[in-house]
Amino acid sequence: MIQNIQDSQNTSKRNPASDIERSLEYLSIGRKLLSMESSLRNDDGKVIYYPDKERNFLCFQFLSPSRMVLSEPLDDNTLPVFSATHKYKNDDHPEYVNERNKIKVMECIQEFETKNIVEALIAVALRRNKSIVATHVAKDSLREAFLLLEKENNTVLKVVMHPGQFSRLLLKDFHDFYHASTRERLTANLFGHLWTADIHVTTSIPEKTILLTGCRSMTGFFAHHMKVTDGPTVAVEYEFAAGIYDDMSAVLEIL
After folding, report:
1. Which of 17, 30, 89, 145 has the fewest Cβ atoms surrounding its Cβ within 10 A?
2. What is the mean pLDDT of residues 41-57?
3. Are 51 and 243 in contact (CB under 8 A)?
C-alpha cells in the first residue's frame, strides 16, 4: 500500500512533456519515416537545419492546422514552423484523469504528425511518377512497388497501409510475411515484416493507398519543440517543421 502511494506521488511529479515525448517516440508512425533533428530553433529563433546541398527537398507549409502544402525552402534554408497549443484542466483531478488528458494530447499530436508526413510522402511519390496501380493487394504488385525504389539502389524499410488493406493482406498466402508480436503492435504500431520492410498500420493513410519508404535519413527530416506550462490549466505548446526529399518514397494504389 505504501509502495502504491509512493508510485502515485512519483507519477504526479513526472514532466508531462517527457511522458508525451516518450509515447510519441514509440507510437508515432510519422516519426518512424523521417529522421529527427535534435533542435528546432537556434539563438536567432530560426529553425536549425543544414540540408544536403546535393539533394532537393520540399518543406511543409501549413495554410491552416488541417491544410498542408509542400513548398520550396526559404532562401536562408530555414523552414516554416507550425505552432499549436493544447490545453487541459489540472485542478483537483484524480491522477488517472490527468494521465488520460496527457494521452489525449499525445494522440492529437501523433495523428497530426503521421497524417501530414504520410500525405507529403504520397504527394512526392506521385509527383515523381513512382506509383503502381493494381486491382488488389497481391505479392506481384507489392514486389513491383518495392522495385520502384530498389532499382535506384534504395532499400524499402517501411510500408504504411490502412487497416482495411492490412486485413486483406493477411488473407493472402505470403510465405515471406512475418507477424509482429502483440507487444510490438501495442507499443510500436508495428504489425509485421515483409521482405526488407516493417509494416505499419494507420487510419491516417487513404484505404486504397500503400506507402513505401526507404532509410529515414534519406527520406526526409523533421524538428519539433514541446513546452508544458503547468498550473490549474496545463498548456502544451507544440512546434513542428519538416522537409521531404523528392526521391525516396513510392506508392501502390489499389483500384
Report:
1. 89
2. 64
3. yes
Q: Is the pLDDT assigned to residue 189 strictly greater than 50?
A: yes
Q: Which residue range(s) make up the domain with 225?
A: 2-254
Give the three-class secondary structure for 82: strand
Strands, E assignment, 16-56: 35-36
For residue 41, what are the CA distances in angstroms to 38, 45, 47, 214, 241? 10, 5, 4, 27, 10
Question: Cα–Cα distance between 151 and 40 in angstroms, integer?
Answer: 35
Exposed/middle/buried for residue 139 (C-beta within 10 Å: 0-12, 13-18, 19+): middle
Q: Coil, helix or strand for 221?
A: strand
The number of folded domains in the chain is: 1
This model's pTM is above 0.90: no
What whole-number distance in Å separates Cα of residue 59 and Cα of residue 78?
9
Residue 209: all three cell numbers together = 493507398
Compute the average pLDDT of residues 72-81: 72
Q: Which three cell numbers stand for residue 160?
A: 504504411
Which residue is associated with the grid cell 491516417?
204
Residue 118 predicted with pLDDT over 60: yes
Terminal-residue alpha carbon distance, the chain: 58
Per the model's pLDDT, the better-predicted residue between 132 and 173 turns out to be 132
Q: When comparing pLDDT for 1 and 160, which is higher? A: 160
104: its cell numbers:
489525449
Residue 98's pLDDT band, with cuts at 50, 70 and 90, is low
Strands 131-134 and 158-161: unpaired
